[in-house]
Design brief:
This protein is an alpha/beta fold. Helices cover 42% and strands 13% of the residues.
């Protein structure tokens, strides 16, 4: 389908809803979905629900607050702590299922409490190409995924975001901090803070697309290929090493393959799912 056809399909899907709660992280997808839902349903019939937790970077939360205000949509903030979910901290391959099940249960309860008809999430068509156990929770709880239903890919959403003037159009893909840990590596509040501190350094030094992966004493850095040369410049490399070691890492490694989604699934049976 052409992009305008997909966009019209999205609006038709949203038009069928009386009201909606959008699970809102402030990322590319949920921001575009929130704006479109606002335009179609009106601000009185849409709210943004954001759950704070140890796995949600403080920077991203602050961005979500700014974006909700910019869009003129009411934001409801709730507390969630995935580390308290039985089995989550052990980091099994189904980690995202447990997380999403709790998140969307919170969204559904809040929707019922406030009188909203549907809960929407920002999954898109590309999410079907990777191992995404969180999709099972979306299906089980009957959460709607309008972007996916309309056949929109990530690049489609970026293109439409550019046309809409959204500041998130070029934002790097968002994923919770738990995704920085290999399956089976225990997730703790302290380790999450290590990663958050290191990624904050990367962001404050103008890296656009990156991840800091946790491997015990080693931090493995993924950056976009066009940013590889800058990270080894001594003006960046030396303060970066100092900051990462101050965060608690003994070794700092640069992944020469660069940033890519789903890298924690490489070398596992999940890579074939």
């Amino acid at each position: 389908m052409q992009l305008d056809t997909k966009f019209q399909k999205l609006k038709d899907i949203l038009t069928e809803l009386n009201s909606a709660v959008v699970a809102f992280s402030g990322g590319v997808d949920s921001t575009f979905l929130l704006q479109t839902a606002r335009d179609v349903l009106g601000t009185k019939h849409v709210i943004a629900l954001t759950a704070t937790s140890p796995t949600y970077p403080s920077y991203e939360f602050n961005e979500s607050v700014r974006l909700a205000k910019e869009l003129g949509v009411q934001q409801v903030v709730v507390d969630s702590n995935e580390l308290e979910i039985p089995g989550f901290a052990d980091n099994p391959p189904q980690r995202c299922y447990h997380c999403k099940k709790e998140l969307f249960a919170i969204c559904l309860n809040k929707a019922r409490e406030l009188g909203y008809a549907e809960v929407l999430d920002g999954s898109n068509l590309d999410d079907l190409d990777d191992y995404r156990p969180g999709r099972q929770a979306v299906t089980e709880l009957k959460v709607r995924s309008p972007l996916l239903e309309a056949g929109l890919t990530k690049e489609d959403i970026r293109a439409l975001s550019r046309l809409s003037g959204l500041s998130t159009a070029e934002k790097q893909p968002f994923a919770c901090l738990a995704s920085r840990f290999p399956y089976g590596t225990r997730i703790t509040a302290e380790r999450l803070q290590q990663i958050d501190r290191c990624e904050t350094f990367m962001r404050e030094n103008s890296f656009h697309t990156f991840r800091v992966r946790y491997h015990g004493e080693t931090a493995r850095i993924e950056v976009a290929l066009d940013e590889l040369s800058r990270i080894i410049d001594d003006k960046v490399r030396i303060p970066l090493l100092a900051e990462f070691k101050a965060a608690g890492f003994t070794y700092v490694a640069l992944d020469l393959q660069g940033y890519r989604t789903g890298s924690m699934n490489e070398g596992t049976a999940l890579n074939d799912i």
